[in-house]
Write a structure and sequence with these properties.
There is one protein chain. Helix content is about 30%, strand content about 25%. It has about 140 residues and is of the alpha+beta class. The protein has a domain at about 70-135. The strands form 4 sheets. It has a 3-stranded antiparallel β-sheet. The chain has a two-stranded antiparallel ribbon with strand order 1-2. Strands 3-4 form a two-stranded antiparallel sheet. The radius of gyration is 32 Å and the shape is rod-shaped.
């Protein structure tokens, strides 16, 4: 008879698992000496570190990018600042303030979409207006 190396419980001769904690019993050359291989749970511990680290990293990168795109240039539509810079297809930048990003440029409803117009300026519109403009 031996003892579980994981929890200290007595282990019957010939047992493959500890009856208390479930650890695997590995038999050595001598029939009276037992080693216990504790269940490995390292992967759970690793994921508890990796997942939060990745989330924090993504948030920090997103925040940094947001700060980098804020500008003191006047809004293309109303002239207010601060604005966010949007790089257009021709390499120029369009600057839009928070208020102009919130509402549809055509009907005043809540803006949910944006696109680059022919003058290379970002236009913020509601879903209904966006569909009308892109269905034509």
């Amino acid at each position: 008879m031996g003892y579980c190396g994981n929890c200290g419980e007595k282990i019957e001769k010939g047992a493959n698992f500890c009856g208390k904690c479930g650890a695997v019993v590995e038999k050595e050359q001598s029939e009276h000496v037992y080693d216990v291989i504790a269940p490995k749970n390292n992967s759970a511990r690793v994921w508890k570190i990796i997942i939060p680290s990745l989330i924090v990293g993504v948030i920090v990168i997103w925040g940094f990018m947001q700060l980098m795109s804020v500008s003191d240039k006047p809004c293309d539509w109303c002239g207010h600042s601060p604005t966010v810079a949007y790089k257009e297809s021709d390499g120029s930048y369009s600057y839009v303030c928070k208020e102009c990003r919130k509402k549809c440029a055509w009907c005043g409803k809540k803006a949910t979409r944006h696109y680059e117009n022919m003058m290379h300026k970002e236009v913020f519109v509601c879903e209904e207006t966006y569909k009308k403009m892109h269905d034509d």
